[in-house]
Amino acid sequence: MPALLKRSDILILPSNNEGLALVCYEAVEHGCIPISTDVGSQSEIVPEGLLVPLASMACVRETVRVVDRLWRDEAFLAAQHAALNACHHRLAADPTAEEVISGLYRQTLARIEAEDEALGALPAQAEGGSAPRTNAHHDIEA
């Protein structure tokens, strides 16, 4: 897909249902301008000037209008490139899922280890009591 996007000027994504289409993000990375239906979270990566309505005929008419305007209006083209780059940089600055989840995992692991230490400091249970907790989770790398 990257090679195709590098050779293309425009990506048209008429979709009924998207979250945030990664192909639009990839298009921007390769200098290709995405035009997308205004669904899901597409407005996070596709600026307003490149979003088209969902209704079929309106989608086709607006897509043709946007492509024509990109072709004929250098100021509009430059503005859309700038808006795409701003959206891309804003999204790229957000933490990744790995960064968020690994931080939460480390916090949870530290809390469990602190609880285990506190339990280990308690006096031994009377005969017939429950067995102390084991630290089986310590085999997991953070």
Q: Strands, helices and their partners?
A:
Blueprint lengths: L1 H6 L2 E4 L8 H8 L3 E5 L13 E2 L3 H17 L1 H20 L3 H24 L22
Parallel strand pairs: 1-2, 2-3
Structure write-up:
With 142 residues, the protein is mainly alpha-helical. The chain folds into 2 domains: 92 residues, 3-Layer(aba) Sandwich (Rossmann fold), CATH 3.40.50; 33 residues, no CATH class. Helix content is 53%, strand content 8%. A 3-stranded parallel β-sheet has the order 1-2-3. The longest helix has 24 residues. The chain is elongated and about 80 Å long. The model has no long low-confidence stretch (mean pLDDT 83).
Which characteristics define this entry?
142 residues, mainly alpha, Rossmann fold, 2 domains, three-stranded parallel β-sheet, 8% strand
Overall form: elongated
Tally of distinct domains: 2
Approximate strand percentage: 5-15%
Q: H/E order of the elements?
A: HEHEEHHH
Secondary-structure class: mainly alpha
Largest sheet: 3 strands, parallel
* Overall CATH class of the largest domain: Alpha Beta
Which residues form runs of ≥5 with pLDDT under 50? none
Q: Any idea of the CATH topology of the largest domain?
A: Rossmann fold
Strand order, biggest sheet? 1-2-3
CATH superfamily of the largest domain: Glycogen Phosphorylase B
Regarding quaternary structure, what we see is: single chain
Mean pLDDT, to the nearest integer, reads 83
The helix fraction, in percent, is 40-55%
Number of helices: 5
Cα Rg: 26 Å
Total strands: the figure is 3
Termini gap:
34 Å
The CATH architecture classification of the largest domain is 3-Layer(aba) Sandwich
